[in-house]
Structure formats: C-alpha cells, structure tokens
Amino acid sequence: MEQLNALLDYQKLDIKIGKIEAEVKKSALYKKVVKVRKYLLDSQKLMKKHEVDIVEINQGIKVLLTQYNEANETVEQLAEALENVDVSTSIKEAQMLLRKAKQEKAKLVKIEREIIKSQSKITKIEESLQKIAHNVPKYKAEFEQLKAKYDEELKEINKTTSPLKSELKELAKGIDKDTLKKYKIVKKSHPIAVVRLDVKRCMGCNMELPSGMAKQIANSDKLMECENCGRLLYTKD
After folding, report:
1. For the chain, what are the domain ranges?
2. Which of 11, 117, 139, 224 is 20 to 30 A off residue 75, Cα-Cα?
3. Running DSSP on this structure, what letter comes out for residue 195?
4. Which residues contact 127 (CB under 8 A, 6 or more apart)?
5. Using one digit for the tens of pLDDT, what is the confidence trace for 195-230?
C-alpha cells in the first residue's frame, strides 16, 4: 500500500510538472522558435540534397556527351559513306545508309534535348541554392534572438519546476526501481500511467477485463498491467 501511495503521489506531481512545462510550448514564442528551427534544418537537408543532385546530373551529362560524340562520329561516317555512293552501290545499300543516318541524327537531337533538360535542372538547383544562401543568415539571426528570449522564459519556468522536480526525486526513493521503470515506459504512451480498476473495468481505456484477471489484480500486492492498454492498475481498496 505504501508503494502504491508513493507511486500515486509521484504520478500526481509528475503530471503537475508536465502541465507547467507544456504551457510554455503553447506560447507564440515557442512556436516561432520551432518554425524557424525547422526552416534552418529543412534548408540544410535541401542544400545537401541539391549538392548530391548536381553531382548526379553532371555525371549524367558526361554520359550523354560521350553518347553524343559517338553518335556524331557515326553521322559523319555515314555522311562520308553517302558522299561516296556510286553506281556500284545498290539502291538497297544506299537506302540503308540514309535510314541509318536519319536514325543517328534523331539520336543526336534526343541527346541534345536531354543535355539541355539536365542543364536546366542544374540552373534551377543553383537558383534554389542561391536563395537558401541568401535567406539562411537572416533566419539564423532570427533564431538566435528568439532562442535567447525562449531561454529566458524557460528560466522562469524552471524556478517553479526545479523544487517540484527535487520533490519528485525524493518520492522516487520510496518506489521500487522496477515499478518506477515500468511506470516511465507506460507514461510514454499514456499521460496517466497508473489507473484504478473499478470492479473489472480499467478506468484508463474503459475496457472490461476477464473476471480471473480482475480477481488476480485485486488479490495481488503488485501493480499489474491492463491487457488492453498496458496501464498499471490498482484496486480501490
């Protein structure tokens, strides 16, 4: 019973501290800090992505230029072959040369378009990088100013929460380590981790437990978990 009372007192104080700390996160200042910080982090990620994209696009352009040179060389060879067509060359052979020359020229046009498209992508990426480089210093300065103001707010909050946290540590000394560890794990999913078992109903998730389990919890000296939500249960008595 002492363990349970200590844990319930611990939970009550823990919730109180959480509410106080949550209030500061509702402030307009905190939201601005988060927004500006997100912009800076997103900008950093985007710059890294742009750098990788430029390298990949340039590698692609190199491949395209190699293909272009090969196709251009083939076109020149075909043009020379067509110039040397004489009466000994069959119509079929001449037509084949013409057809192949057209195919290679079409290939050249396609490669040229792909190169222009790739160069256009690089231009857009570079414009984006310039914009980021222009904006980041301004946002960094704004973040530093906002962060300084927010830190002042936190100092005021800490004046209230520090003694409460000290009290929380003292309460923790009267709670079994395994029980406290279990409480903290459940707390990550549920703000109120320890709840009452009302006959057979968990007052956390409002689900009814099997009679056998409810009886086991009622007769146990240890806190047991709700099989539905995982909260720690205790009986009214």
Report:
1. 23-162, 180-235
2. 117
3. E
4. none
5. 999 888 999 999 998 888 888 887 877 788 898 899
The Cβ of residue 33 has, within 10 Å, a number of other Cβ atoms equal to 21
Q: Count of CB atoms within 10 A of residue 171's CB?
A: 18
Alpha helices (H) in the chain, listed in sequence order: 2-24, 28-83, 91-172, 177-187, 211-219
Task: Give the chain's length.
Answer: 237
Instruction: Give the angle 61-64-69 at the CA atoms, nearest 5°.
Output: 125
Q: What is the dihedral of CA 63, 64, 70, 75, to 10 degrees?
A: 170
Q: Which CATH number fits domain 23-162: 1.10.287.1490, 2.70.50.60, 1.20.1250.20, 2.60.40.10?
A: 1.10.287.1490
